[in-house]
Write a structure and sequence with these properties.
The complex is a heterodimer of chains A (about 375) and B (about 775). Chain A is mainly beta. Chain A has 4 helices and 21 strands. Chain A has 2 domains: about 35-135, Immunoglobulin-like, CATH 2.60.40; about 140-255 and about 310-370, no CATH class. Chain A has a 9-stranded mixed beta barrel with strand order 2-3-7-6-5-8-9-18-19. In chain A, strands 13, 14, 15, 17, 20 and 21 form a 6-stranded mixed beta sheet that branches. A 3-stranded antiparallel beta sheet of chain A has the order 11-12-16, with no helix packed on it. Chain A is globular, with a radius of gyration of 24 Å. Chain B folds into 2 domains: about 5-105, Carboxypeptidase-like, regulatory domain (Immunoglobulin-like), CATH 2.60.40; about 120-785, Maltoporin, Chain A (Beta Barrel), CATH 2.40.170. In chain B, strand 22 (about 325-340) and strand 23 (about 345-365) form a beta hairpin. Classes of the chains: A mainly beta (about 375), B mainly beta (about 775). At the A-B interface, helix 1, strand 1, strand 3, strand 16 and helix 2 of A face helix 4, strand 43, strand 44, strand 48 and strand 49 of B.
Chain lengths: ~375, ~775
């Protein structure tokens, strides 16, 4: 049950005032504050290395400047994760502000308790509260719906991918879903060289016209079973844009969350969805589960999340989306210059694989024919 | 009621008796009626030439005063009527009947605020009281063509609101839930239509509207900030009248009149059609929907000359649908039965029984998760009041009050067959509030008077309920619950009680100047749970329980009142200091909806506010008006000892409705031929806001950090409204007439900031200022009376 009264009430007000309301851009006040530690860490039952990101909050010196690139990464901290059995893994710096676990044998286990330790160069040590990994139920199945709505400015039509799972009735459960995908894209392609493979795009008689593009899904997707305890869960987890005919490669992860992390993400949603309406919840800092070891009132921003994870990789083969429909709703997403010789797909569309390349890791994926 | 309380209240009655001394004078009684309609006129001033004495008619239009035997020139006046003089010989005539003729429209006083007597502000032992002249609102500037009680209230000193279109009002820095709004004695738990744009009570059903900003009489209690008393019109005794009106988004019709010689009625309602206007707008506006109506009815039965019974019924309904997947609805149902009996010439008994039921619904229509979330509050009350006019300068009132509350903080139901939502209900809350009171208004001399009151209230939090106990020394959370206790139905779980003294002193220097001092204490046993700046339909009421203590308010006020030029100009300066304890605040990230452990997410807070209110009014002549300026501050501080839970480190910080400067100028000019020009000018400091003071990245999204609440402030607000209105009455008795009102709201189209919000795009974080009514809003309303 998603429930964001703030946004809706703002809309309501805008309606109420018909054409009388107006919005204008202003220069905001600037306030200085001391930098605070920001932590973002995730440990799962998956065996991939775990990352912990550390930074300080940036000054809002000029609100219209790009703060995104002005992150104050912390590159000289000592970071390790330890469990209740006495094992630990050091995390070393792999890129600015990002630390990665080094011990491949250190893998999260359901029922074990983990703590994140961060020693900063100024001598302060921050620790997370000990977090236990709760089990997450399996993904029963994946359901797909074709959404034939589109917006010429932002997206073509799309496949809505939902997971189906059964919430256990005897426990309180909190969920998070993370997903990504590779979707077919089309460019005009290049004239095929002599002796090269047959044209990848039979319609244009051009080579290098089709490729797969990475699609991340940054929208936070969390759920509590507070209102649906013991029920079937049908949760939309990925919106795969239909730019062109072809297979969609989707990975879905279903994670368990601890209650304090769920509360943290709820606050995160509240803060990032603020509309400025007087019907917004009052703003506050996003304090998670990390505090100064010697002063529990000195709390860091951010969180250390531990999760059991169920991963499902699928390949969707859409059969029933007519080509003329795709052409009419997605044509403007074919990069210019128009016409044969306008450039190959990989070169003209960002975050794409080489022409005809297959995304790694989908070798054993479940294939779903979608009609 | 336990014997203990009974004794306490008997004690209260007993200590009042010494005041009931008799003077060796003759009683003059009388009645004042409208010449035209024969309706009783309440609040008419009775004064006597060459005498300092005077009185005011009661709600039946009757008065009684003790005077030495003599010949008197009685002067009777009332707002909207021509003043009448009558010679009275008080040795053979002790019952006078006065009929007042309505003033021709050109002479109607063009002021919003009506004083009861021309020097009432000086002479009466009353302060911090506002009366709204309801009929006059039809001529003042309107928004979208609706005359509105609460909008008129916010033009008065000491009353503010968090923003244009926000629900409710704030009195002297108090929260919206600290106002006791009574409709014929029954409380309204939500005063707003359309999410706050209009008040739920149609002005056309209202007889009078009075707001006490402080020094609430001891006969009332239960809220910290104010008492707003709305009385429904009793119904004309002479003939059936129709009152109709139509504006851009709503229309109303009210009918009142006699059914027979003992029974009068009023019935009618208002219906809104905002959808009609919305349909002209594209996009999400066009696909939204809203609707409201309210119905009011009253029956008034004269059993005999001493007994009268009245029944009031009221219902309001609101529906709001957004383009997305949620609809909101809220409704109020009220029934009030009132019996008034003159037990003797001096003793009047009043019994009021009322029932108020408020329902708020949220309906989710998202596929697979369709639900209805409902919260309700039910209030049942019986109040017995004795009013005793022992002498012409001593008035005593005493009585008792019993309230039964049933609160359902939330019940969630699936609203479709395939919905995955479970049926979940939170525990209902039950509480009883019992109070007894005594007040004595004693005029020691024409210059000194005192109103002393004492109220004792007790609140019992009752089962069936499960109470959770939390570990000491740790922040409360579901994880720190040590045990839970089940209390059976009716069992008292927790009781609170306290004395509420009220005191008001008037010291006159001459008949044009007086100084008034007051102190009052109030307890509040229920608070609104709302973590937003303005009230929303999601909010619900919470009774005091073992964890949430009753709120307590103390207010000191002092004022100097002076009239000039034969009471044509009234001026006053009032200062106040208010301290409130045990207010509800919220932990950061508190989850308020459907929370079984809501106690664990609430914080105890203290509030304080203080201010100065300056008023200058001109009540007579061609040009009338008022200048009201308030300077005030309002703060709140959390009491928790756990630093991680404190907002702003536990220090006092400005409350959401801290608006230091508040100036409003209202004025009217009679243009002749029934035409009036009215205008309002408002200048208010911006409300506190929280601006970001840091930024960081989480989940690949840039997040702004807000570390200190309400440290910033929106820019100031100012606005001018003008209205031209015409009253077609040629003579006061005219039966058919029209009033037209052409209003322009926000004449100079100022883009007043309603809120500032922050949004991110490719260029970084940007600030935007939203103006709600950022342009000229014209409207036209027609009233037709027949």
């Amino acid at each position: 049950m998603t429930h964001k009264p703030g946004i809706k009430f703002l809309l309501a007000f805008l309606f109420l005032l018909f054409a009388f309301s107006c919005v204008r851009r202003i220069q905001p006040p600037i306030r200085e504050s001391t930098p605070r530690l920001v932590v973002e860490g995730l440990l799962t039952t998956d065996s991939t290395p775990y990352t912990v990101k550390l930074s300080y909050t940036g000054q809002l010196t000029n609100a219209s400047s790009r703060v995104d690139s002005n992150q104050n990464f912390i590159n000289d901290a000592t970071v390790f994760i330890k469990d209740d059995a006495g094992d630990s893994s050091l995390c070393t710096l792999i890129s600015p502000g990002t630390y990665q676990s080094t011990d491949i044998s250190f893998v999260g286990k359901v029922g074990s308790i983990y703590t994140l330790n961060i020693r900063l160069s100024n001598g302060k040590t921050y620790v997370s509260t000990p977090e236990k990994i709760d089990p997450v139920p399996a993904i029963d199945s994946i359901s797909i719906v074709y959404d034939s709505t589109y917006d010429y400015d932002t997206r073509p039509t799309q496949l809505i991918i939902s997971v189906n799972a059964h919430d256990p009735g005897n426990t309180q459960n909190f969920y998070r879903w993370m997903s990504l995908g590779w979707v077919p894209r089309k460019a005009w392609g290049n004239p095929c060289a002599f002796g090269s493979p047959p044209p990848t795009d039979p319609f244009q008689n051009a080579c290098g016209a089709l490729c797969l593009q990475y699609q991340g899904y940054n929208t936070l997707n969390v759920l509590s079973d507070q209102y649906i305890n013991g029920q079937e869960i049908i949760q939309p987890v990925f919106y795969s844009p239909v730019y062109w005919v072809g297979k969609h490669y989707i990975e879905v992860q279903q994670l368990s969350l601890n209650k304090d992390i769920y509360v943290f993400w709820q606050q995160y949603l509240q803060q990032t969805n603020r509309t400025g309406s007087i019907l917004d919840p009052l703003p506050s800092s996003l304090v998670g589960n990390i505090h100064n070891l010697s002063d529990s009132n000195d709390v860091a921003l951010g969180y250390f999340e531990v999760s059991d994870v169920m991963t499902k990789k699928i390949i969707i083969i859409p059969h029933s989306i007519p080509l003329y429909y795709i052409e009419s709703t997605a044509a403007q997403f074919i990069p210019s210059p128009a016409g044969p010789g306008g450039g190959d797909c990989h070169g003209s569309i960002p975050n794409t694989l080489d022409d005809n390349a297959f995304p790694p890791g989908w070798e054993n994926a479940e294939i779903i024919d979608f009609y | 009621m336990p014997l203990f309380f009974l004794k306490k209240y008997l004690f209260l009655l007993w200590i009042g008796f010494p005041a009931l001394a008799f003077a060796q004078q003759i009683e003059l009684k009388g009645e004042v009626h409208d010449f035209d309609t024969k309706e009783a006129i309440s609040g008419a001033t009775i004064s006597f030439q060459l005498s300092k004495k005077g009185t005011v008619t009661n709600e039946d239009g009757k008065f009684s005063i003790l005077l030495p035997v003599d010949r008197y020139e009685l002067i009777c006046s009332s707002a909207g009527y021509q003043t009448t003089t009558k010679t009275v010989y008080l040795f053979d005539e002790n019952n006078v009947h006065i009929e007042l003729k309505k003033r021709p429209p050109a002479e109607l006083p063009e002021i919003v605020v009506e004083s009861r007597r021309k020097d009432a502000n000086i002479a009466e032992a009353k302060m911090s009281v506002i009366n709204i002249n309801v009929a006059q609102l039809r001529k003042t500037p309107m928004v979208f063509g609706e005359a509105d009680l609460i909008k008129a209230l916010t033009l008065q000193s000491g009353v503010s609101t968090v923003g244009e279109g926000a629900s409710g009002f704030n009195v002297r820095g108090g929260n919206v839930d600290q106002n006791l709004v009574l409709l014929d004695g029954a409380p309204l738990f939500n005063t707003s239509h359309l999410l706050g744009f209009y008040s739920v009570i149609s002005t056309d059903a209202v007889q009078n509207f009075t707001l006490y900003k402080g020094t609430i009489p001891a006969s009332y209690g239960g809220r910290l900030s104010s008492l707003a008393a709305i009385n429904i019109k009793p119904g004309n005794e002479q003939k059936t009248r129709y009152n109709t009106g139509m504006g851009p988004i709503s229309a109303h019709i009210f009918v009142d009149g006699p059914l027979n010689d003992k029974l009068t009625f009023l019935a009618g309602g208002r219906i809104a059609y905002p959808r009609f206007m919305m349909s002209f707008f594209p996009g999400s506006v066009g696909s939204s929907n809203a609707f409201f109506y309210d119905l009011t009815g009253k029956l008034n039965y004269k059993i005999n000359s001493k007994n009268r019974v009245s029944l009031s019924l009221y219902r309001s309904y609101d529906y709001f649908k957004f383009p997305g997947d949620t609809t909101y609805g809220w409704q109020t149902n009220i029934a009030t039965l009132n019996w008034r009996s003159e037990l003797s010439k001096k003793l009047v008994f009043n019994l009021n029984a009322n029932y108020s039921f408020y329902i708020s619904d949220i309906n989710g229509i998202e596929p697979n998760y369709q639900f209805r979330l409902r919260n309700t509050i039910q209030h049942q009350q019986a109040k017995a009041n004795f009013a005793f006019q022992s002498t012409d300068n001593n008035y005593v009132e005493f009585g008792g009050d019993f309230i039964k509350y049933t609160v359902d903080p939330g019940e969630l139901n699936p609203s479709a067959a395939n919905s995955k939502i479970n049926n979940i209900g939170l525990q209902k809350e039950y509480g009883d509030e019992i109070a007894g009171y005594l007040l004595d208004r004693y005029e020691i001399s024409s210059l000194f008077s005192i109103e002393a009151g004492i109220r004792h209230s007790t609140f019992l939090y009752r089962g069936g309920h499960t109470i959770y106990n939390y570990a000491a020394g740790q922040p409360e959370s579901p994880e720190t619950i040590t045990d839970s206790i089940n209390y059976p139905k009716g069992k008292t779980i927790q009781s609170y009680s306290g004395w509420e003294p009220r005191l008001l002193l008037k010291i006159g220097f001459d008949d044009q100047t007086s100084l008034k001092l007051s102190y009052d204490r109030t307890y509040q046993y229920l608070q609104l749970i709302s973590n937003t700046i303005a009230i929303t339909p999601v909010d619900y009421w919470k009774l005091s329980d073992p964890q949430v203590k009753p709120a307590r308010g103390d207010q000191f006020a002092a004022g100097i009142f002076r009239n000039f030029s034969n009471d044509i100009f009234e001026t006053s300066i009032e200062g106040f200091y208010k301290k409130s304890r045990n207010l509800v605040d919220y932990k950061n990230g508190a989850s308020l909806s459907m929370n079984t452990y809501i106690d664990a997410d609430l914080l105890e807070a203290n509030g304080k506010s203080y201010g100065l209110e300056f008023n200058v009014r001109k009540t007579k002549g061609k040009v009338t008006g008022q200048i009201a300026y308030t300077w005030s501050r309002s703060y709140i501080a959390d009491l928790t000892s756990f630093a991680t839970e404190q907002v702003n480190g536990g220090a006092y910080y400005p409350s959401n409705f801290d608006r230091p400067s508040n100036l409003s100028i209202t004025g009217g000019i009679k243009l002749g031929d029934g035409w009036n020009l009215n205008c309002n000018f408002v200048y208010v400091s911006g409300r506190p806001a929280t601006y970001p003071d840091g930024t960081y990245v989480i989940n690949n999204t840039v997040v702004t950090n807000y570390s200190l609440r309400n440290e910033d402030r929106l820019p100031d607000y100012n606005r001018l409204d003008i209205s031209f209105s015409r009253d077609s009455r040629r003579f006061p008795e005219q039966r058919k007439y029209t009033i037209i009102n052409f209003s322009i709201y926000n004449v100079y189209a100022r883009k007043n900031p309603y809120s500032i919000y922050f949004q991110r795009d490719e260029s970084g974080l940007n600030s935007y200022e939203l103006s709600v009514l950022g342009t000229i809003v014209p409207s036209f309303t027609l009233y037709y009376f027949f």
